[in-house]
Amino acid sequence: MFSRLLSVAAAAGLAATPIVGQAQQATAQGDLLGLPSDLSMLGETDPNRRVATALVNGFVITETDVNHRVALLLAANQRPVSDEEMIRIRMQVLRNLIDETLQIQAAEAQEMELPQAEVDQTYNRVAAQNFEQNPRAMDEYLRSIGSSPESLKRQIKGEMAWNNLLRRNVSPFINVSAEEVNELIERLEASRGTEEYRLGEIYLSATPETQAAVEANANKIVEQLRQGGSFVAYARQFSEASTAAVGGDLGWIQLAQLKNAELEAVAREMNPGQLVGPIRIPGGFSILYLIDKRQVLMADPRDAVLSLKQIQITFDPGTSEATAQQRVARFTEGVQAIRGCGDAENAASALGATVVTNDQIRVRSLPDQLQNILLQLQVGQSTPPFGSFEEGVRVLMLCGRDDPQVAEGPDFDQLMGQLENERVEKRAQRYLRDLRNDAYIEYN
């Protein structure tokens, strides 16, 4: 949870220079307004150079607030940023702080003030999970990265206040009938054995007027993600869907649930770990990340639990490459001659190798390449040798396999909750847009 909270501040991507076609279109629109072709600006031409503070319905967001939240972002992504990117980050963080303030104010206006004790309790729980029951250690860590406990607590307060507000003002008015849930169950049964997907999504809304700028922002986000940025962090920071709170994770879905032919077509061709976007959809743009995929209501072989023996040889410093290669060849030949797991220790001793046994290895916890190899092995067989002269060369011998039971689909209550959450998300987006439209915001 601590990493999830830290990743609230993710790197920003604002509008880049419009492409030629967009510039020509803008010029044509300017002619309709009677604007001169040669403009002489009478004030500051770069609004991003102003001091990043704002007054939101009387509440002051200071430059220190922005600095502390930016520090959380940089700690979450653990990579350097350019001066240009830092400007985008600061502007995005300021917008997020404004939304957070509006959410807290909306809750307080309806006499739903959040006791500080509840915020502190959540903060302490995060510290307990990550700093061995020591909130002071987390305090020190936050200060060491240039942030503060107050900044993280403010973020916690914003999330809790907004959730409380939605539970009282939105959730009670969401209706999902039993017939809708039963229809979904029937569709799941009918699609047994077909693939379902666990997707992450970053959704950015756009109007015809803002479309070019939002698309440029989305391209910048994709670029930063491909350079190593955290998808969870960016989703929490930029996505305008309610799933932003869980890093953009849509959970396990069938592609028809995306309710968009373009997204369905793109996701169907994706492989786990692949990032695609931005994809233009009605109302904005979507960036997709495929976390995993499996077959509907079928057991996943990667959930099998294996009993493995790791047989390994190491090399003394100074061993020549030729000598090492000869030893690897003898090791490979010797491993192939081992007569099952019962013979592993004796054979390994003769080869000058060590053996480590582990009886609780889940297939999906292993690297993808090893997963595919081990799933094809019979008990007593070994993987090809892998490793390096520096770290040692090893094989994994399969000594047992407990296959998963046939998967059970989500029950009635789980599907009911899924449909309710989807509808709450749509209402929440409209709710926040209304708060923005009604707000008095002054920038300094």
Automatic annotation (TrEMBL):
Q: Which InterPro entries does this one have? A: OMP_Chaperone_SurA, PPIase_dom_sf, PPIase_PpiC, Trigger_fact/SurA_dom_sf
Which UniProt keyword terms apply here?
Isomerase, Rotamase, Signal
The reply to whether Repeat figures as a keyword in the UniProt entry is: no
Q: Give an example GO molecular function.
A: peptidyl-prolyl cis-trans isomerase activity
Question: Which SUPFAM superfamilies does this entry report, sorted A to Z?
Answer: FKBP-like (SSF54534), Triger factor/SurA peptide-binding domain-like (SSF109998)
Asked whether the keyword Amino-acid biosynthesis is assigned, the reply is no
State the Gene3D superfamilies in the record: 3.10.50.40, Porin chaperone SurA, peptide-binding domain
The residues forming the signal peptide are 1-23
Q: Which residues form the PpiC domain?
A: 194-292
Official protein name in the record: Parvulin-like PPIase
